[in-house]
Amino acid sequence: MRKLLPSWFTGYQHAWLAGDLTAGMVVTVMLIPQSLAYAMLAGLPPEVGLYASVLPLFAYALFGSSMALAVGPVAVASLMTASALGQLSPLVSQGTPEYLAMAILLALLSGVMLFVAGLLRMGFLAHFLSHPVISGFISGSAILITVGQLKYLLGVPLPSGSILKTLSALPQQLPHLNVTTAAIGIAAVVFLLFSRLYLGKLLKHIGVPEKAADLVTKLAPMAAVIVSTAVVAHYGLDQSAAVSIVGQVPSGLPALALPSLDWHAATALVVPAALISLVGFVESVSVAQSLGFKRGQRIDPNRELLGIGAANIASALSGGYPVTGGFARSVVNFSAGAQTPAAGMISAVLMAVVIAGFTGGFHYLPHAVLAATIIVAVTALIDIDSLVEAWHYDKGDAMSLLLTFLGVIFLGVEEGILLGVVLSLAVLVWRSSHPHMAVVGRVPGTEHFRNIDRHQVETLPGLVALRIDESLYFANAQVLESKVEWLVQTHPGTRCILLILSAVNQLDSTALGILTELEKSLASRNISLQFSEVKGPVLDRLRPTPLGERMRNRIYLSTHQAFVAHTDSAVTA
Amino acid sequence: MRKLLPSWFTGYQHAWLAGDLTAGMVVTVMLIPQSLAYAMLAGLPPEVGLYASVLPLFAYALFGSSMALAVGPVAVASLMTASALGQLSPLVSQGTPEYLAMAILLALLSGVMLFVAGLLRMGFLAHFLSHPVISGFISGSAILITVGQLKYLLGVPLPSGSILKTLSALPQQLPHLNVTTAAIGIAAVVFLLFSRLYLGKLLKHIGVPEKAADLVTKLAPMAAVIVSTAVVAHYGLDQSAAVSIVGQVPSGLPALALPSLDWHAATALVVPAALISLVGFVESVSVAQSLGFKRGQRIDPNRELLGIGAANIASALSGGYPVTGGFARSVVNFSAGAQTPAAGMISAVLMAVVIAGFTGGFHYLPHAVLAATIIVAVTALIDIDSLVEAWHYDKGDAMSLLLTFLGVIFLGVEEGILLGVVLSLAVLVWRSSHPHMAVVGRVPGTEHFRNIDRHQVETLPGLVALRIDESLYFANAQVLESKVEWLVQTHPGTRCILLILSAVNQLDSTALGILTELEKSLASRNISLQFSEVKGPVLDRLRPTPLGERMRNRIYLSTHQAFVAHTDSAVTA
Question: Model's pTM, two decimal places?
């Protein structure tokens, strides 16, 4: 039993408690407005966001490997949920029990996928998306989210579906805005932006210690929630000025229940669930790793898959929707002193207390303040620095970033991330199909061999020696074959092609097949294929194959020996 | 004008004509029964197969790079066409004009995709699929095709949709078979198999020259068509014994027409078209390359994309369906002496003559003989050797092959190839995320540095030198970061991490970001990150970056210099 529990739990030290307790409380104060707001962003009732902030935190604490990652509803996954469920329309529409059921199913699918990937130790998938693609995706999502929240922020009817449609309708609709709502919303944005940008500095300026000042700024969204709720309730603005409010939030903890398994719907949700899983996982791991490195703690991507997978399964079982590790909350958790995932468990318990007894307090909370919370949170994610840096450093990376960004904005969030995945994979395939190779010659008077294009070296007539600087496998072996054919054509009189395999750690069966064919093709033209510096494990597998048997006497330990043998045979001939 | 034409055309030599003429005629004789049969396999009227064998051959001749590839209807692309159009059911059903229109649209989409990929020089996509995956896919398709043709071969009603459904219905339905049809079908199979396996040997045994004997065996399908048509017509078996026949085949060349562009249908066909394009392209290139190498001719994958793309566009414009380079016909074309694509043009002209005047001759051709032609052709594609070889050489490759094979058979042809693509990509990503790295030390008394696990080398206290044997980019940079963190943890007292970048040809912006973060994280723990042997182009881009500026005095030309500097500073300290 003890072995199944994580080591931070079985070896918990009292010294950690103060940090975990502080962090747990601070994160809870951030989590309350965010979980309500992100549920709204996903098109779900507010309590669903609260539910997604209890059990998933426990599940992550048991399975995950990060000491600081704060799991729960996040902006991008909420946007992706809304987008995935939007595609089921008109069969399933927002506000219906079916819509909620599909959101829960999405969390289940995503959780199972992540957990299974973790069991299969597929954590390497985290390296699937390049940073420029992720950066472009997040920035694009932030803009999409901001534009989508304008209708709540200003209390004005705006069409959704595409960013162009929404923005082009704005000038026409603006005269119809709800002045009170817009006043509340804009005041909240100004207050939250001020808090984020200046409050900390101001507090430090008047002598508040740096850490305390930083923490106070993080409480601003909660303050906005409390003040605006009080104002709306006191003046009855929901009645007198038609300010849209959250309304009745059911109290009481969610009952554990198996989500309804509709196979037809599950099939339709597989791709969206896979994309949410991928994005959520990549985001979580990169946040967890950057925090882990600050304290020299190691993150195991496979355990992160298990942790986030378990969190999503727990979310689905308790009526929540897809969750993942959030960037802002994790940073706050870390800097508020979280030592272990116990901080997350403390947050979860506090959230459960809120759900059990205090949901009545959110009745008069205006939607405009939630929209302001979302907008201020996501605009911080817009990352122009990465674009500028990539532009200066690598134009190709900058193009990937821009294309993904434009894809998200103009094609949609799923299409955008798919475009990003395809771009990343295309780069991977392109790179893999361009192995580095060099024709080498002997440095005079030595046994060293160097690139003939860069060094003064000697070559032997009739012998072309090609050094291959990468393992050979299906994605690049054909390029080697083409290179050899090109060398044969450009070096008339070639009697021998020597492949120097010093950097070849692996040779898969596709590459073996291509080399076998190449050897036969060369032999039919009286050109001898030879190998040198074959690594032990490669040679062991090569020897019993037909190619290995044909080449038995043409595999040299060193390139030098191959050169000597060639010189001898040339003398004999 | 001359520059736009391919060089084989502008520089055509009279000496080539004999070979091209022979090959063109032999291929035509193979092409007639195959084009009728593969159209049936795709669920299309027989004349569509004939149409797909005229203009596409001209188009390929103008744009392609292979001197021997024989383009036209092939078994696997026909199966994929049937599968793609089957998914449009019940909206579009076989035998209707809409079904044909969708097949033509599929050819157009596939052609445009391939041609555009060619213009974008994306020929490297040919290295996307590993040989085991292709082998598994082709073998699975062959079995799927064979089982699907049983109903025509035996004249018995069998359900389609899944191989299990078809096979499980067979015992029940077998008593209802059409005895005459089954007799014709089985006789054709026996005759064709005998021709393929023994006729050549027999002819050689009685003194026929080897080449002539080989060619005669290729004429067997045409002989089966002629004999069976004559028998059915003479005895009126279509009436007296209800033998299913091809019936009226319209004569006259197809009118050039733009395919109807139904955007809704086009959207549904994008993925199938992409898969047909990928498989067709990969198959064509590998056939073209293996034939090209035999004569030392180079195949340009980008020109192959243009060639096969143009062939499919031409097919769509002339009422045909997706085409690609066929394996068997290309080999025959090659061994019959084809010197240039003029052989294909000759085939095309002969096919046009057949369409213009001789389609009446196919009226009494029994479907069972077409099914026999298909079955005998595709069973030759079942490749057990590759599985056995892969099993002995690399169990992982063997698993990829088996999974793709089983995927095609039990999930379907599109699902199977998608599974194969995913498997290939997963291998690619997995490999890319495992860069080779080695901690090195100095070989005593030299300036050489070698892996400490394999050689007796000296290390310096506080210095860990890590040689990276691959370029650094998004798919593997995080692994380097983890490795460094692990080294720091397992080497207490480390003051300096030296990264030897001798094999790093590229450093993308993701890797730059990760190294920047790593440098800061190490610096905060008083560990100095240093580089040595940075290649010129990498250093040029690195220098102006924030990381480059921070590290200005910590980049050493050689590892030896870094060791000397470390020793000096240790002495000073």
Answer: 0.76
